[in-house]
Design goal:
Two copies of one chain form a homodimer. The first copy, chain A, is α+β, with helices and mostly antiparallel strands and about 250 residues long. Chain A contains six helices and ten strands. In chain A, β5 and β6 form a beta hairpin. Chain A binds a DNA duplex (30 and 30 nucleotides) through α3.
DNA sequence: ATTGAAAATTTGTCCGGACATATTCATACA
DNA sequence: TGTATGAATATGTCCGGACAAATTTTCAAT
């Protein structure tokens, strides 16, 4: 160790080890020296070595396992960009207080085309809800929604006539299943006749179609929503921030 | 402490403190007891107390400051959803190996409408590059791009005729400025005449317009790109994952 | 060669102490 | 009253040690 260098020793050791990992001295999938060996090499206590290793683990460079050792799992800190949201409600860009005017509730097998678009197996029976989403006052139409619900959650059917909020939340509360992952797709396509009629827009306007698949921890599709927004008054915006976790 | 409870003591203490924070015993903006006081209350060593507090800090519940104390900054772990990418290149959904066929390079003041759309001050002079983005073979057109570059980076102008990759990367390498934040907007709009002509699509097709603003750490807009994709063959997809950081 | 138990290895948890450094607060001074 | 100084306080860093728990290795018995 060199006392002239700046910063605490655990940071110095952590930096040195990171350089070695980047240089390939400790290759990915290989193992770092044991804590005892690092203590000896740097003439520091095990406590300080562990602080250094903790930083490497937090940076996602190594994985530590009791009894086994510290394994290198990445050569460089990831530190990409993230788009984060506190709640899934931020996926809906419109104000949170909207209401869904349900047009019809059916139990059906989606046609081949919708099934492919939905990213779910064809031939499966889904609970389908369709309707117009309006602002809180019930005046301004926002989008035309078709929502496909996994039949495992058919129990929420009575509540669908006037859903109090987002339907995925209804399922989370009723069944205790949490949404673990959401896949979202945004595309432009010619607006469908019913959507144009309900939204009161010209059929020459295209729709921005937002498809969201809600999956649980097991990868099961809980819910798929298809929202057709009038293309002349909808835009989707998001902010990405450099991830701070990558630093060591 | 109760030895019957499961898990290590620092986790038990961390859980208890978190419950107190959630209950308001330690209100937000207030301070936790000092390490010494916690040592006494739980009859554990300072080392164990520090491990417990570290977990709370990592969960974003408290902020620790030397000489001051541990301040509560949130009552509940956030644990929202994140959409993360290792590189900004993942923002471009098409294959990474595309090339930009530059049509023209000008230095101009964007019109009022584009300036507003771009989210930058009007009246400013920008370096503007426009052209068609093609696949690697140069056969299939992908989108029509208009790129507005902050004049502070006018030095990259010679390299713009045949940009080797993404232009933001050119700036990062040449000037040593890193992109800290990206704002992205996706909307559908009638396709412009030049875009339709260059892309070889009907003017009745709408375009999916993706506007990206690249900002540095100081909030300066480095670059704005406007990409018009043919709406009949483009979709934007993203995956959101439940954030694992929220656990304590 | 395979299995199973014991031993060695390695990290996890927990304790004790000491000094450094940043912050806050009380006090004396102008 | 305002300011500067020093004391008290609180967290940061670092060392030493001990035992627990998980894993891997060794080696003997089948």
């Amino acid at each position: 160790m060199d006392a002239r260098k700046p910063g605490p020793r655990y940071a110095q050791v952590s930096d040195i080890l990171q350089q070695r990992i980047a240089a390939g001295t400790y290759p990915v999938a290989g193992f770092l020296p044991t804590e005892a060996e690092l203590c000896q090499e740097f003439s520091i206590s095990r406590h300080t070595v562990r602080d250094a290793l903790r930083r490497l683990a937090e940076a996602g460079l190594v994985q530590r396992r009791q009894g086994s050792g510290s394994q290198v799992i990445a050569a460089n800190p990831q530190g990409g960009y993230v788009h984060s949201m506190r709640s899934l409600d931020e996926l809906f860009q419109y104000a949170a207080d909207t209401r869904l005017r349900v047009d019809r509730i059916t139990e059906s097998v989606p046609d081949a085309v919708p099934a492919g678009m939905l990213g779910v197996d064809a031939g499966q029976v889904w609970l389908q809800v369709a309707g117009l989403r309006l602002d809180a006052a019930g005046r301004v139409p926002i989008c035309w929604s078709s929502i496909y619900i996994n039949r495992a959650f058919a129990g929420i059917m009575p509540d669908l006539a006037a859903p109090p909020g987002a339907i995925y939340r209804l399922i989370e509360e009723r069944y205790g299943v949490m949404v673990e992952r959401v896949e979202q797709e945004i595309r432009a396509m010619p607006i469908s006749a019913p959507a144009a009629a309900e939204l009161g827009v010209s059929r020459r306007i295209w729709a921005v179609q937002v498809v969201r698949r809600y999956l649980d921890a097991g990868g099961m599709v809980m819910l798929v929503s298809v929202n057709d927004h009038p293309g002349d008054r909808f835009s989707y915006s998001m902010q990405l921030q450099k991830d701070a976790r990558g630093r060591v």
